[in-house]
Amino acid sequence: MNVSLSRTSLDVGETVDLVAEASGGAGGYRFAWQALPPGCAGTGAIVACVPTGPGLFDLRVTVTDAEGYSAVSPQAVALSVWPALNATVTVAPTAPTVGAPTEFGIQLTGGARPITVAWEFPGDHFETGLDANFTFAASGVNLVSVWVNDSTGASLLRIQSVQVEPRATVPAASPWLVVGPIVGVVAAGAVLAVGLFARRRPPRPASAAGSTGPPTADAPDAPRLYG
What we know:
Elements (H helix, E strand, L loop, with lengths): L1 E4 L3 E3 L4 E6 L8 E5 L11 E4 L5 E10 L5 E3 L4 E6 L3 E7 L8 E9 L6 E6 L3 E4 L2 E5 L4 E10 L5 E10 L10 H26 L27
Parallel strand pairs: 2-8
Antiparallel strand pairs: 1-3, 3-5, 4-6, 6-7, 6-8, 9-10, 10-13, 11-12, 11-14, 14-15
Keywords: Membrane, Transmembrane, Transmembrane helix
Organism: mine drainage metagenome
InterPro entries: PKD_dom_sf
């Protein structure tokens, strides 16, 4: 009797075919499988097994012919069942800005190592590894695709939606924001000049008492004669 498996390693939730081949005897074989993973059962020569729990299982099968004679598979066949592969994508910052670098990461649970990760960003930009960096060129909703594959052949596709904000812009300054201060400075300078001019003017001489005419300047001293 011979026992074979379609695969010897898989993740929870995947399918493995168990195959038993018998010869001799009276025919009319019945098969009873032992040490199957949880979620698997069957009495046929071929059993499609979808494990619901992880573990290492040594599978055997007992075959019974129409005459009631039985035989057990001489050697156990090992089957490794790994926890189901799962992945969560992280984005920092969660709302990036156009032109600013964005960091991506992925958190993995389950699966059989090694695990490969491939990223696809807008503009047909590709990266591999647990971490990736990308700078978005367009605002709005951008989609990032991530493929995760483990060594059993299990694969996941995660599509991450990222809301990208427009690049911050500085509004153009109003002309009055520039001209206004200049006008103010010029006006202040004019007021200061007038004040200085007023301070430097000599005072008018007081007019003689009782005089109604305009004030006159003092007459210069008469010339002196020397002889």
